[in-house]
């Protein structure tokens, strides 16, 4: 099972790296590992202020 653990650890690292990158680009992370009946989304992000109306 070492391969599965390594893949999960790499996935968590990649999610953190992506969230840092997006934050530096002006995105706000709204959710991590969002789950719904349809599946899972690793990151939910929005550029600018969350909850603000579009211009």
Describe the structure.
The protein starts with a helix and ends in an 8-residue tail after the last strand. It is an alpha+beta fold and 55 residues long. The mean pLDDT is 87. Strands 1-2 form a two-stranded antiparallel sheet. The protein has one helix at 2-24; strands spanning 27-36, 39-47. The protein is flat.
Highlighted features:
55 residues; alpha+beta; Trna Endonuclease, Chain: A, domain 1; 1 helix; 2 strands; 35% strand
Compile the SSE list and pairings.
Elements: H1 2-24, E1 27-36, E2 39-47
Antiparallel strand pairs: 1-2
Question: What is the CATH fold-level name?
Answer: Trna Endonuclease, Chain: A, domain 1
Instruction: Quote the beta fraction.
Output: 25-35%
CATH class: Alpha Beta
Number of domain units: 1
CATH architecture: 3-Layer(aba) Sandwich
Structural class given helices, strands, pairing? Answer: alpha+beta
Q: In what order do the strands lie side by side in the largest sheet?
A: 1-2
> What would the principal axes of the Cα set say about the shape?
flat
Instruction: Please give the number of β-strands.
Output: 2
Uncertain parts = none
The run of helices and strands is: HEE
The portion of residues assigned to helices is: 40-55%
């Amino acid at each position: 099972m070492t391969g599965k653990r390594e893949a999960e650890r790499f996935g968590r690292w990649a999610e953190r790296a992506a969230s840092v990158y997006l934050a530096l680009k002006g995105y706000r992370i709204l959710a991590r590992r969002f789950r719904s009946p349809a599946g899972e989304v690793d990151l939910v992000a929005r550029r600018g202020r969350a909850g603000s109306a579009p211009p």
